[in-house]
Structure formats: structure tokens, C-alpha cells
Amino acid sequence: MKPELAAVYHELLRRQKAGEKSVYLSDETLQVLRDVAAAAEAEAPAKVEPVAKEPAPKPKVTKPSRPTAKMANEIPEVPAPPSVALPDGTKAERMKFLREKILSDDWCQSQLKPGKKVVPGIGSLEAQIFFCGEAPGAEEEIEGEPFVGPAGQLLTKIIQTMGLSREAVYIGNIMTYRPPVPGPVGNRPPAATEMAYCLPYLLAQLEIIQPKVIVALGKTALDGLLGADPKRRMGKIRGHWQSFNDISLMPTYHPSYLLRNQGLQAKRHVWEDVLAVMEQLEMPISEKQRSYFLKP
């Protein structure tokens, strides 16, 4: 407190204690008070108006990106396909040799993420039907078995509706490993070079099993077997018999297509292809089976 103001303050305090309720102030004293007040106001920090805070931006949630065409092209140079010479012996002995060769393939192993598995085919060595897909997915490379995810569960239902069991047929893929993708999730179709590398393993499985019919599940699998054809359309070729290595080949939609297209027509198309396979193998077909997925 400035000396002038302190003197006035103490004098007023003294007079209040003395019982005085009013006091006369000279013009000089009033001017001192005015000067002190003006000086105090000038020295006071400027009043800062509070700045309205902008609302904090909402955290951006990024969905896992699906593999793009650019990602699909970022494929390492694939080595020459392996040579597979099956030994003499029983089907079981030859398949044991082949599975060990597939599971120990250095290139296939190098394409896997830690903890994932190579996926050879599985099923009866006496199977008449070989269901062939394109490549393992996320669930398959964990289990080391083809078609165990949602699409595989639907394939199992189709097989059971045929009057067969999963153990009575053979199920496999052209690829023995899941095509790697840059991110933690997602799938991409295998490249032609990747399928070409794994094709000898598929041919060896066919040589051992000697099925009467191959069911190609989806266009990618069909392209892997017959060679890519940009003019090929599943909507036109499905249900029409083809041939691969002198084995009857029936193209049909992949089960994942049915998971995306729940309409009755899509289900009937696949079932008609299945009925054609059953007729080719002279399997018994009931009227109930023939009427599945028909419009009422």
C-alpha cells in the first residue's frame, strides 16, 4: 500500500474507533485518493476474456481396409514350382509322404505369419468327389484344415444334404497356404504365380485319391485349374461340365458367395450343380432332394 493511502487509511480507522460516523475530507485528500485509485487501475493486469474451448475432436475410427488391387500386386517373386515324385506304396503311405512334404515346404512356411499353419487337403482317400477351393482363410491357417470357417460349415451342410459326410469326400484348396496380406486382417485372391507354385501338390493329391469328380468352388479355383480367362463368368459356366486331367469338373459358386447372397435362386443354382454331380456318380436322389430351394 502506498504511503499516502496508508496514512489516510490509518486516520480513518482511528476515527472510527473513536466513535466518529462521518469525516470531512479536504480536496487535497480526495485528490490523493483519486490518484492512488487511478494508479492502481493502470497497474492492474488487463482482464483476459476466457476463450471458448473448441470441442475435442472425436477419435477417428478406422475400419480394417480390405486388400486393394495395389496390395494384391505387391506379391514377392514366387520360386519355381516344386517337383513332387510320389513313392510307390499304398494310398495311405503315399499321402503320408505328400503331407510331410507339403508341411515342410520352405516357401510355404516363409509366407506364413508366426503361429499359422500350412493347410493340405483332408478327407477320404477313396473319395469319389474332390471339393476344390482356392486358398485357406484365417480360420483354416489356425486349424491347419481346409474349409472350417463359416464357408466351410456351409459346405459341410451341402455335403450332408447330399447324403454324405465330410469324412466321405475329399476337401482341399489349390493353395496350401493363406496368401499373405499387408495388414492384420483380410483376405485376397491368390495370384496366378502363387497357385502355379502349389499346383503340383494338388496334382499329387488327385493322383493318390483318383476321384471321379472335382467340384471347383468359385471362379478363382476354376481359373487356377483351367487357366485364367477374362471372358469367363461363373454365372454362365457354372453347372456346365468341364474336364481337368481327364477328371470330370463341375464349376459352381463358392460357399462364401451363398453367405453373401441369401436369395433362393443362388441356393438353387448351387444345388442344381450338386444334383448334376450326384447324377454323374449315380447316387440315389430323393424327390425331397430334387425339390430343395425351389419356389413354392
Automatic annotation (TrEMBL):
Enzyme class: hydrolase
Domain called Uracil-DNA glycosylase-like: residue spans: 120-275
Entry annotated with the keyword Oxidoreductase: no
The EC number(s) this enzyme carries: 3.2.2.27
GO MF annotations, alphabetized: 4 iron, 4 sulfur cluster binding; metal ion binding; uracil DNA N-glycosylase activity
Family: Belongs to the uracil-DNA glycosylase (UDG) superfamily. Type 4 (UDGa) family.
UniProt-recorded name of the protein: Type-4 uracil-DNA glycosylase
Species per Swiss-Prot/TrEMBL record: Oceanipulchritudo coccoides
